[in-house]
């Protein structure tokens, strides 16, 4: 069993990010069984869930003529426009049926603000609006984070870098993540995480 100050954060293991989903990540379902096993080692287990209202501003379909995976400028900076995914209450937004959700004490939903995307479990993409995750972790006495899940180059990456910036000791188990890999985003994320002081394991 891990120490009481260690938390496992499982990022976005949802149907839409697994094969057959609206924003499928190659091999996204391969990491589920090992994540289930890893959850048993941790006293503090948190799941995140991408949770967008229909018509969310991060969807290409909300921007006239925009192609999925193109980039637009939002008031808070550049934003990739995604296929519609993880719409609140949809089957695509549900956790993959193979993921054991029972060991988790809390689910952090993110991306629910219609005008702002949220990759990180800690802050919306304005890098300012908190989700409450930091307070939850601190009040439970957590100082070390292990992060796994989908996608390595977006939500895992942003959560890990924000966690390190906030002063947590962060490890990403790369074998328990899969990437979207848009224009080299996987390598860029690995480099960025290392620069931020995130430990990459596996
Ligand atoms: C994610 C793109 C859009 C993720 C979420 O979970 O990495 N990526 N929404
Ligand atoms: Zn999303």
Could you characterize the architecture of this molecule?
- With 202 residues, the chain is an alpha/beta fold.
- The chain has one domain (6-53, 84-201): Isochorismatase-like (Rossmann fold, 3-Layer(aba) Sandwich).
- It has helices at residues 32-39, 133-139, 152-165, 185-195, and strands at 6-11, 44-50, 71-74, 77-80, 106-110, 144-150, 169-178, 199-201.
- The protein has a six-stranded parallel sheet with strand order 5-2-1-6-7-8, with helices on both faces. A two-stranded antiparallel sheet has the order 3-4.
- Helix 3 packs parallel to helix 4 (185-195).
- The longest helix is centred in the C-terminal third of the chain and has 14 residues, at 152-165.
- The protein starts with 5 loop residues before the first strand and ends with a strand.
- The mean pLDDT is 98.
- The structure holds pyrazine-2-carboxylic acid and zinc ion.
- Zinc ion binds next to loops.
